Every structure is written in structure tokens, then in C-alpha cells.
Amino acid sequence: MKPLRQTRLPIALSHKDCMQIINAVGHPVYRNCILLMYSCGLRLGEAVKIQVSHIDKPTSILTIIGKYNRQRQVPVPPTTLHALRNLWKTHRNKRYLFPNRYGKTHASECTVRIAFNHARDAVGFKDITPHVFRHSFATRLLEQGVDTRIVQILLGHASIRSTQ
Predict the structure, then answer these.
(1) Helix runs in 25-77, H state only
(2) Which of 30, 80, 117, 160 has its CA at 20 to 30 Å from residue 48's CA atom?
(3) What does DSSP assign to residue 57?
């Protein structure tokens, strides 16, 4: 008989720790990308590819194309939306919210990850990845009493077991 697989709880940072890392990111495009990851529970690959047209301005709903081309919608907090509007006014790229420096395509996952790692190291954390922000987002929701099924939908998990 095969032994049971040991399951570990994911690492989750406090809101204060997440904001410390976000504020330590120097480049405004990368900082806002990481802020959006934390405030909406996005994966890094989902966040960098966000297009301006994916945000419904009247309702503040963000449409995300996730893993396996699955589509989901999440609300964007007003403070994050304000920060994204201010960022867009600096580059005014018609397509991408987080363009690369040439403006032809979106910022790469690699450069955002490097900016994240530099900020993380500057603040003094170790072994924290951008994906930890996704876990931190889900933890904040659960702490506020949001139902696990709602968290599952917001994270785009097919199975409730992934969320639990």
C-alpha cells in the first residue's frame, strides 16, 4: 500500500508584509503588476498579459484568461483600480496594461519575477515567490469569512480541493 502524500499548507504573508514588498518595487509597471496580483489573486503569467480592454470600467470587473484558456472574472479594489489608471496615463499603451519597454508586447514574466525578487530581498524575506501573493489573497478572503466556493471561483480552481 502506498503511503499517504503529505500535504503542506501554503505560505501566506500578512497584508502589511505584502504591501512592504510591493512598495519596495522600484519600476512602476512591475510594482502595479505585483499589486494587481495580490489584490485580485492572479498568477504571474495571468497578470503580465492583462490587456486594457479586460477591465470593465463601470463595474471594476477584471476578466482573466487563466490556465487552459479558462475565463473568470474578479472585482478590482478601488485603490488598485486608481493605481492602474495612473499607471496607464504614463504609457497610454492601447493594448497592454503592463507593456514592455518597447510597447510592442506585454512585460515578461521573467522581468517581473526579477523585480519581485529584488524587492523581496530588500525587505528581508527569503523563500517567498510571487505565487505566495495568490495564497495571501485567498487567506485574506477566508479570514474575512468569504465562503470557500467563492474563493475557488475567484482563484479559478476547477476543484474545491485545490482551494482547500
Answers:
(1) 28-40, 44-48
(2) 160
(3) T
